[in-house]
Amino acid sequence: MSISPRTPTRGSPNWSKRPSPAPKSTRSLTSAPVPLAYMSYIVCGAKPTSTKKNSPVVVARATLDWDEGFVVAAESAADVSLVPAAYKTEYSPETGARDAARLAKLEPGGFELELYAPKAPPTPAVSRSSCAKRSRSPESLPIFSNFDLVVTDERPYTFGDAKMFDFGLRAESPERWTDADERFVEAVTAAWTGEMESDSLNALVLSAGLMKSQVAVLRALVGYLRQAGLPFSRTYLRESLVKNPELARAFVEYFEARFQPGNAADPSELREALVEGVGKAASLDDERIANGLLAVIDAVVRTNAYLTGAASLAFKLEPRRIGFLPEPRPLYEIWVYSPRVEGVHLRFGPVARGGLRWSDRRRISAPRSSVWSRPRQSKTPS
Question: Angle 233-235-241 (CA atoms, 0-180°, nearest 5)?
């Protein structure tokens, strides 16, 4: 874009010939007329959006250096001395002012994530995330890898007592980023702050299109399967669902049809489709795990999963409907799950004494076996 004052023509009334140089004896800097100078600015960049009205502003900003542009964009509300030099070489002053404002709003211990598309991604499956935080937090690379993402690069920047991280993230396919911004940001923030566990089941946020609350329900049910005695580790149980994202989503839809208030879906129809999907599992182990998960969902009679503000998930089950549970089976069982603690309560009658047997130790996480062994001695005939 070229911006220059209109040049008067020779016939216009404002035109005046340049005076002839005066003799050396009379020439002086103070008395000789000074000719006008015309300057032309060429502003390179994106499509010009300037108009006749704002052209002077565009030209003025183009002449500013990075620090001056930052001060103008931030309206003097941020300290440019906190911006690291490496950041200035990668981002515009306007972006710097916006990131500085994000960091300034964070409380101690705060965290904020923003997902955006790079201007020229190496492949369509690449996206970028900008993380702002004011606290010590877990390593970021394992968190992103649990979403089945490859971190292509990491750019850390320190703004005083706050930090900004810019990550390049590559998914298995471009379709995984479709309509995923809100779901992904919510889930990563929950995993980073400890509200949600960071494990391989988080990959279902992108591969199956699940929300973090839906993944939490699956994680709780997988935890019960491990307690119930299936001969598979938690890691193996999770990997089975991650390998079958369509089946994992079908389990969530069936669970929601049964218990989510206002859900108009027919549970019987969804169950029929789910049974058909289980029969197409890739391996016998996957089929066994899927059948076990279906039996557990069938046995749930009540849950607080859709109660606003619940700090943990609780499921009331009828163990007699779960064929692979060992005898004797209680009348009811309450399974409680949260990222910090798991527990179980067994009731062998309508009214039962006792409380919740719990364990926060992952390596010895078998509270059900511990509490079940006591009534077993009295219920099992000798």
Answer: 110
CA-wise closest residue to 361 among 341, 346, 381, 380: 341
The helix-helix angle for 66-74 and 93-105 (nearest 10°) equals 50
- φ, ψ at 184 (rounded to 5°): -65, -45
Residue with tokens 């193996």: 236
Between vectors from CA 257 to CA 255 and to CA 189, what angle results, nearest 5°? 55
What does the alpha-carbon distance between residue 373 and residue 377 come to, in Å, rounded to a whole number?
A: 7
Instruction: State the residue for tokens 């471009």.
Output: 174
129 with 167: CB under 8 angstroms?
yes
Residues in the chain: 382
User: Cis peptide leading into 5, omega within 30 of 0?
Assistant: no
Q: How confident is the prediction along the chain (382 residues), in pLDDT tens digits per residue?
A: 444 443 344 444 443 444 445 454 444 445 556 667 766 666 555 555 666 666 666 666 667 889 988 988 888 778 889 999 999 999 999 999 999 988 888 888 788 888 888 876 666 777 778 777 765 555 677 899 999 999 988 888 998 888 888 989 999 888 898 888 899 999 999 998 889 999 999 999 999 999 999 999 999 999 999 888 888 999 999 999 999 999 999 999 999 999 999 999 999 999 999 999 998 888 999 999 999 999 999 999 999 999 988 889 999 999 999 998 888 888 899 999 999 888 888 887 777 665 555 554 454 455 555 555 555 555 555 4
Burial of 329 from C-beta contacts in 10 A (0-12 / 13-18 / 19+)? middle
73-100 CB burial, b ≥16 within 10 A, e <16? bbeeebebeebeeebbeebebeebbbbb
Question: How many C-beta atoms surround the C-beta of residue 282 within 10 A?
Answer: 11
Return d(Cα 170, Cα 356) in angstroms, integer: 43
